[in-house]
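Each field is set out as follows.
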Amino acid sequence: SGNVDGLMKGTLFLQSKKDSVVINLDSMYLKGDGNFKLSTYINEPDIFYLYLDKQDGDSLNDIITFFGKKGDIQINTRLNTFDTSFEISGSQNSELLNEYNSIIRKYNMQNLDLLEIFYNAQIENNQTRIDSVNSELENLIRKKYLYTLNFSITNSENEISPYIAVSQIPDANLDLLRKVYDTLPERIKESKYGKILKEITID
């Protein structure tokens, strides 16, 4: 449940993925009031999507990704910054996911800045600069991997830990992924993403 500040008309959908296909679980048509309440049945914490159809033909930046769980979760956001200004309560996994994404966004912005410099260096045929930026890009990728690995290990008591590993670094060194898996308590190993991580780490 929650509120979309500034929304005058639109439909909110609660969604999840099943076999790589996004499905609608619940929906609510809103008119003149941004307050909403959606529900579904859930067996364990998992990734869900709150999708807003403003009925303007543009679906970009209208999806909030969050970790759902049994119980009440509140999501409050604004119409104009739907997927960037939202606040969520009632789900520790979602709070951790937001924390992770905020850092990753900074890495991604650095990556874009470096790519721009790289392409300009290519146009200028500046090989020294190209080599330098290449090195910086590789270093940034390593930092991003290490941050993700450390985040998963640090938060091993939560379902977010194996989820981050399987969704962000599934191609990482198997020994590193096994290290993440070995830090998980038994109940997290038995969770959906704990089982997926186990499968990835098997030769």
Summary: The chain is about 45% helix and 25% strand. The two ends are 43 Å apart (CA to CA).
